[in-house]
Design goal:
mainly alpha, 5 helices
């Protein structure tokens, strides 16, 4: 995480946290530092972004013939390799798009603080 933050800043870090939350982690607790990630991930807008990208990934998978589908994770064919690259690219874009909402949350919080 430190390397990503050093290379890409807060946006990169947010994207990687969002990736973790979708792939293998969950938010627990009520610390205010977690709220920006809840805001980014647990809203109807985030679910719509997720659904859009997953539909694209599923459509691409469905376009492959059965032999290519069966080889995606073991001895992949050329089509299966192309699919995996496409899936990685789509997930990267999806996580980045959802992570942008962290910045939106920060701006809203800053505005609330200024109103006080």
């Amino acid at each position: 995480m430190s390397e990503i933050y050093a290379a890409e800043g807060q946006k990169g870090l947010d994207r990687e946290v969002i990736r973790m939350l979708y792939e293998y982690a969950e938010l627990r607790g009520s610390h205010k530092s977690l709220e920006r990630y809840r805001y980014a991930k647990d809203t109807p807008a985030a679910r719509a972004v997720y659904q859009k990208y997953m539909d694209n990934i599923d459509d691409r998978y469905g376009q492959m013939d059965e032999a290519d589908q069966k080889s995606v994770w073991y001895k992949p064919t050329e089509k299966a390799k192309e699919y995996r690259a496409y899936e990685r690219d789509m997930r990267e874009k999806m996580y980045s798009e959802i992570a942008e909402r962290c910045g939106e949350y920060d701006r809203k919080q800053k505005n609330k603080d200024l109103e006080r």
